[in-house]
Design goal:
Radius of gyration: 17 Å
Number of helices: 6
Bound molecules: Thiamine Triphosphate
Distance between the termini: 28 Å
Mean pLDDT: 92
Structural class: alpha+beta
Strand order of the largest sheet: 1-8-7-6-2-3-4-5
Number of strands: 8
Low-confidence stretches: 64-69
Helix content: 25-40%
Largest sheet: 8 strands, antiparallel
Oligomer: single chain
Strand content: 35-45%
């Protein structure tokens, strides 16, 4: 199964409309620590390495379209430490963190998110609240394979429209963190066409 997902900013009244008839599933805390190489070579290739609640995850872009094509947020994800090390060209073996440190990687964004998860069939809706005062909704749909992704994207956008959500460009949580706390890094991402 592939998860097709799209993020939305929540303006006044949006959350109530989005969650009308939705069933609350659970609330979780996500502790994400994002890392990048000293030359920012991961993020400048729209590649994102994080430790989430103790496990490692790498997100790499599926399509190579520019940021103006960002209709849906689709990434390939790895969660095996050795597979991640191979993908980012990290030498050696063993646990990732000491190898990253040796290679000059450092933390670029520490994020704490409270995520509330709901089901409003056939969609799953995440409401994310960050510790630094940012809020996002994510609408997700599971599809069997890539041939259904376009149809799923249309369904998500249509559903969002019926909830009167604005499909304005949305900064993901990391991008918002960099905008507030590392503006020079954000400028580099803009110059590279990642944002
Ligand atoms: C993909 C990405 C980043 C990594 C974080 O991904 P995101 O989907 O925001 O995290 P989260 O916590 O919702 O993941 P989930 O729990 O669903 O696995 S950081 C930046 N990006 C891409 C990106 C971009 N290139 N440009 C803009 C404006 N926003 C985001």
């Amino acid at each position: 199964m592939i998860e097709v997902e799209k993020k939305f900013r929540l303006l006044s009244g949006d959350e109530d409309r989005l969650l009308q008839g939705a069933v609350f599933i659970k609330e979780i805390e996500l502790r994400d620590t994002y890392y990048d190489a000293a030359d920012r070579s991961l993020s400048l290739h729209d590649t994102w390495l994080r430790e989430r609640n103790g496990g490692w995850e790498l997100k790499m872009p599926l399509n190579t379209a520019g940021s103006d094509q960002r209709v849906i947020d689709q990434y390939r994800e790895l969660d095996d430490e050795q597979a991640i090390a191979t993908a980012i060209g990290l030498p050696g073996t063993g646990p990732l963190l000491p190898r990253l440190t040796t290679a000059g990687y450092s933390v670029i964004a520490p994020l704490v998110t409270i995520r509330r998860k709901y089901r409003r069939d056939p969609f799953v809706i995440d409401i994310d609240r960050l510790d630094f005062g940012y809020e996002l909704a994510e609408i997700e749909l599971l599809v069997a394979d890539e041939s259904h992704m376009e149809e799923a994207t249309k369904k998500i956008l249509h559903f969002a429209e019926t909830c009167q959500l604005k499909t304005i460009p949305v900064r993901g949580k990391v991008i918002e963190y960099l905008a507030r706390f590392s503006p020079t890094h954000l400028d580099q991402l803009r110059a590279a066409g990642v944002v």
